[in-house]
Design goal:
- One of its GO terms (molecular function) is isomerase activity.
- By secondary structure, the protein is α/β, with parallel strands linked by helices.
- It folds into 3 domains: about 150 residues, Rossmann fold; about 160 residues, no CATH class; about 70 residues, RNA polymerase sigma factor, region 2, helix turn helix motif (Rna Polymerase Sigma Factor, Chain: A, Orthogonal Bundle).
- About 45% of the residues lie in helices and about 15% in strands.
- The protein has 15 helices and 11 strands.
- The strands form 2 sheets. It has a 7-stranded parallel sheet, sandwiched between helices. Strands 9-8-10-11 form a 4-stranded mixed sheet, with helices on one face.
- Helix 4 runs parallel beside helix 5.
- The relative contact order is 0.11.
- It binds nicotinamide-adenine-dinucleotide and magnesium ion.
């Protein structure tokens, strides 16, 4: 029996995780769940899985959840970041699904690593912000880090068992998002609804916008650098609009191994939950003959400037990826609230990066300082630009 904490249980990844878990009541037990403001959904999940703990944003939200479940399940409802860290590191927990979106997920993900847990990492922003530091904590505390991001989970499955023997390159596939063919001149006027209508994946709003700008792939390049200890010049991005090939590993003998499947996050989630075994995920089998032709293209940095910004931030190193991530979170939130145009997302990030070079990231305090400085600056830049 594997005992689980699911951080971000009410989100897209959290819901998919609980769907897989519910298929295997003999294998998994939910110890703790977290949500933020989606009270009803979290209460329903508590009623279904009867966890020992549930964590929400604040006392008011906690009272609402507690009221809804009172007399039905004995779940203790807590709130705040410290409670998130606590449920990530409980002694009775074996594995933690880290599926909070953005920098908010960093502290609890780190707590899981420091607790020596099996960490199922969906929260890529945590690794983008702290890369080296996070990997050192994983090693020091003998945690097991398993990637949930479909591309990294694919790479993990295609890597040799002996560490990196004969690997030449990692090839991350990208769908190109909803605007792969939109005339560049029209991109300034696209709406959040258009940006969130991803052709292949049903995801949270922040990552959907990241997919549309391809910042998501940029964050994933940085994530891959740390997860697989691979320098940036050995990580390539290939556009593959069908999202059937989830990523590839190229070897020195010319072999290229790919992991394929229908675009459904329950596959990488089930893989990481059961690893090194395999379990049913509920995903329908891939019907290759019925699939559309598989297409591969090179990405265009002019259409997707965020991808270039991320590669450059990775090369700059130190606290620059944390600055990139923070500026992106601010710009994407502003875009979703109709306060910023789509093309201006990249401009806000570029200006923030220009003005905050060389921030250190040797300690967590330095990372949070870079994050805070970048958020303040990006917020100012957004307000000056308004919707332009
Ligand atoms: P989502 O927006 O659907 O869910 C986010 C979750 O985080 C929710 O449970 C929400 O309650 C919680 N949350 C939000 N703000 C919080 C805060 N300040 N404090 C605590 N909890 C907070 O997002 P998602 O699509 O499930 O993505 C989650 C993470 O997984 C992201 O880092 C994303 O990049 C990554 N990811 C998602 C997918 C996908 O298919 N959805 C694929 C790969 C990676
Ligand atoms: Mg991905």
């Amino acid at each position: 029996m594997q005992r689980l904490t699911v951080l971000g249980a009410t989100g897209s990844i959290g819901v998919s995780t609980l769907d897989v878990v519910a298929r295997h009541p003999d294998r998994f037990e939910i110890v703790a769940l977290s949500g933020h403001r989606q009270i009803e959904r979290l209460a329903d999940q508590c009623l279904q899985f009867a966890p020992r703990y549930a964590v929400v944003a604040d006392a008011a939200a906690a009272a609402l959840v507690a009221g809804r479940i009172a007399g039905k399940v004995a779940t203790e409802v807590l709130h705040g970041v410290e409670a998130l860290e606590a449920i990530a590191a409980l002694p009775e927990v074996d594995a933690v699904m880290a599926a909070i979106v953005g920098a908010a997920g960093l502290r609890p993900a780190l707590a899981a690593a420091r607790g020596g847990k099996r960490v199922l990492l969906a929260n890529k922003e945590a690794l983008v912000m702290t890369g080296d530091l996070f990997m050192r904590e994983v090693a020091t505390h003998r945690a097991t880090l398993l990637p949930i991001d479909s591309e990294h989970n694919a790479v993990f499955q295609c890597l040799p068992s002996q560490h990196h023997r004969g690997v030449r390159r990692i090839l991350l596939t990208a769908s190109g998002g909803p605007f792969r063919r939109t005339p560049i001149a029209d991109l300034a006027n696209v709406t959040p609804e258009q940006a969130c209508a991803h052709p292949n994946w049903d995801m949270g709003r922040k990552i959907s916008v990241d997919s549309a700008t391809m910042m998501n792939k940029g964050l994933e390049v940085i994530e891959a650098r740390w997860l697989f200890d691979t320098p940036a010049d050995r990580i390539d991005v290939v556009i593959h609009p069908q999202s059937i090939v989830h990523s590839m590993v190229e070897y020195v003998d010319g072999s290229v191994l790919a992991q394929m499947g229908n675009p459904d996050m329950r596959t990488p989630i089930a893989h990481a939950l059961a690893w090194p075994e395999r379990i049913d995920s509920g995903v329908s089998p891939l019907d290759l003959a019925a699939s559309a032709d598989l297409v591969f293209e090179r990405p265009d940095f002019e259409r997707f400037p965020c991808l270039k910004l991320a590669f450059d931030a990775l090369k700059a190193g130190g606290g620059t990826p944390a600055v990139l991530n923070a500026a992106n979170e601010v710009a994407v939130a502003a875009f979703l609230e109709h306060r910023l145009g789509f093309r201006a997302i990249a401009d806000v990030i570029a200006h923030t990066l220009d003005q905050l070079p060389g921030r250190p990231a040797d300690t967590l305090e330095q990372v949070f300082a870079a994050d805070a400085e970048a958020r303040a600056l990006a917020t100012r830049i957004v307000s000056e630009r308004a919707v332009a």
